[in-house]
């Protein structure tokens, strides 16, 4: 039997590589340490471990211990004060101490000590493993995971955060509802989500391959002392490595599962998929098609989307408008005497006049013709037509077909519309609020009231989902984003009725997304006076995104900017489009189909809105610190050899510095110098790194 070296467990703890000011996540198994104490006939003091780590961290450090418990997912009440950790003894000990406090999430909670304790214990996101969770914090601050005698391949939980943020094919976001007793003893029913495995895929999460990669890249290192293994991992630095694995390598470094998965689609193709999948649904101002559309978005992309119902019975009027009744339709067709369906709603929902009353009659064509709608100047297209406020029934068809039918005016047709109009129904809309660190808000609005057409309006829905994904992925958010999916006009009025005071107080910039997925030129509709911050941002983005931007004045308005910019509302909202509504010939016809919008087209639209968001998040006021020009060479900012382009580079940098008086924003400087915002931003970052400027 080999002789074991005698180990002083206190020495192990004293020698942990933790310094003052560190942010440490301590993952531990105390078995070996307790064994050492027993061998040395010492009393094993667990509090010594916490006290020693705390004293090493000092007043500027933060210590977190995992105190996870998954019972909430099985409907068991979470009791903030009494629910025990299932991940280690030390966490339970910390929960008993007055100097530690528990974070709020009932599944992945932490016992926290130190500087960031109050912040960490104040956050309470629904998505347990999302960007706004403690894991997002550990990523942002590049916390150090100190792993004491634990096999990390089973316990590197932040890998599930990466899986959640990027979406992996073997997991999905599931919502759990159970009772929650908060720190003050108040009981309520709460909902939290967790990323869970698809059972049929037999998924195991083993991060061994990933961990070895982290060791190889010096993002993690190990110390071996006797039978102890202590790992140190820079958690923030490990995230990009895991992201690469998830995005490019089917996550083989961190999970094993049955079957092969399609490679994750690029964003534009994924958003085109949304358009394709939502295309067959019949939408209108109200009804089940709108609910199905929002449900699809919530279940597949935006789990925190709030689907709201506005009761028509309680709100017969919305400001100056009569609230339309809820309309639903199951089927509609016209059949000839032989039972052949010559027009069938189930083949193309544009065939029905929106809000048609129910009907079941047999009439000659001469009479039926009064209820038909077609386009004389585009004879193959089926037009999109609605009659929201006057009670009618009708069908839309190609002019070519209509002319053909007109040849037999006496022929009889059986007309069926199986629809319902419900005065007690509701109007459905979706709202997603993504919090930032200021109360200032950005409104992004799109509509959900058009049936099977792509540019108008599925492209707006897809671009809004992509914008939300982009916003979620920002490491830090200055603004709070309010993204709404509403029926056009009446939905905007409903939303204003419910939120106008809040919107007028907090919304600083707003966008309506409409017709943003075709391959035409980029355009916008400005606010009434073209004088808001929104107008300025949009004009700048348009200038660089295309050679041929089209800026329309408010006199060419047509979407929900009509309500948001109305005199007594007065929100700073511009409409973003590629080819604006009514400016393309496929508009409001069956030719606005899955060929008209493309992945590249919607990709451009997504880029357009995301560039606007990027400016919003980064546009700050900076001031130069030096009196006179700084000597750039001293900071390595002046090229020492003259190369092609280096003179222009230096000139741009000195020009930017020339305007850094604290009164010009980055966007102002970009406009003054006729440079792209992102190019100016890059220089600003360099000046900041060299401590030459400061934010005002
Ligand atoms: Zn339209």
From TrEMBL:
The keyword Chaperone is annotated on this UniProt entry: no
Domain UCP01524 winged helix-turn-helix, first and last residues per copy: 622-693
GO terms under biological process: response to antibiotic
Domain DUF4910: 272-619
Residue ranges annotated for the DUF2172 domain, each copy included: 326-420
Keywords associated with the record: Acyltransferase, Antibiotic resistance, Transferase
Catalytic activity: a 2-deoxystreptamine antibiotic + acetyl-CoA = an N(3)-acetyl-2-deoxystreptamine antibiotic + CoA + H(+)
InterPro entries: Amioglycoside_AcTrfase, Antibiotic_NAT-like, DUF2172, DUF4910, UCP01524_HTH, WH-like_DNA-bd_sf
Gene3D superfamilies, A to Z: 3.50.30.90, Winged helix-like DNA-binding domain superfamily/Winged helix DNA-binding domain (1.10.10.10), Zn peptidases (3.40.630.10)
Enzyme Commission number: 2.3.1.-
Molecular function terms, GO-annotated: aminoglycoside 3-N-acetyltransferase activity
Family note: Belongs to the antibiotic N-acetyltransferase family.
Protein name: Aminoglycoside N(3)-acetyltransferase
Native organism: Candidatus Mucispirillum faecigallinarum
